[in-house]
Amino acid sequence: MSSHETEYHSNDFDWEELRQRIENDPTLAYHFQPFTRHHHHSVTSSSLDSQSWNQFHSRHSTGKFFKERRYLFKEFPELASCEESSKLLEVGCGNGSTLLPILRCKENILVYACDCSTEALDRTTEVIYASNVVSPKSRFRPFCWDFSTSRPPTWFLCDSCYETLSQKPNILHSEHDNDERHFTDINSSKERECCIGGMDFVTLVFTLSAVPLDRMSTAVAECFSVLKPGGLLFFRDYGLYDMTMLRFEADQRVGFREYKRADGTRSYFFSLDSTRDLFLGAGFIQVELEYCCVKSVNRRKQKTMHRVWVHGKFQKPM
């Protein structure tokens, strides 16, 4: 692996050392104190979440707020080598910063994009149609879906396919061939009649952290349900002790490692354990899971920033 590639797996500093330094800083102690949920911090409804994100994307409509995620193919090389007509669902598409490099570099991939915010879907569509992507009309389909509160629309996954794909496999079951043939049927001949069928890939990039903690397991279970057996989920999100976590004030805490910004949008910071529990609890197999520790320097302010992200790759069992 070249030095250029290793920077994507980012070991600029040791996470354990960062943890000790932060936990020993008395000015940051409020982040680790037990949290008691008050009435006014009660969990937001799905419509409020959508409203907050609509306003957010409307404010940042120029798209300068997000940078195109060009690291995706280095972090998730399976995307670069995927088969023709592979199907991918981007969950929480934001303004298209994850989808654009995928559509641009892979002319044979079919991309579906969902978000709870209609404003985000409009932004993504604008960005993709304004770029040099080959035939976006036939390869890109955006739709509104809050994966933390409801199942996917039936045109995407019909009732019977949803029921079959949602089942966690019984590891003790030995008739794998029959199971596999049954799933193949769902994803080939039947998909044209009843629905799109299962996805080969799901990308969940800086999306899950915006979901209220008590809805996260539902959200991950829905990601499991839309994948074909053997399909992969690519995960990247805010890690524990990331610089942005430490910027939140004590009164912005709305739960354990969970914060709310002034605009109503949320942010949760994942540890490797909390990530593992969520995905394995939904039935996934862990393929990769690690902290990405990146040191970036703001030259204008002469300030070093310690960024922590969680990188994960999870597979739906065959």
UniProtKB/TrEMBL annotation:
GO biological process: methylation
InterPro entries named among the record's database cross-references: METTL2/6/8-like (IPR026113), SAM-dependent_MTases_sf (IPR029063)
Keywords tagged on the record: Methyltransferase, Transferase
E.C. code: 2.1.1.-
Residues passing through the membrane, by range: none
EC category name: transferase
Gene Ontology molecular function, alphabetical: RNA methyltransferase activity; S-adenosylmethionine-dependent methyltransferase activity
Keyword Aminoacyl-tRNA synthetase annotated: no
Biological role stated in the UniProt entry: S-adenosyl-L-methionine-dependent methyltransferase.
Family: Belongs to the methyltransferase superfamily. METL family.
Protein name: tRNA N(3)-methylcytidine methyltransferase
Source species of the chain: Artemisia annua (Sweet wormwood)
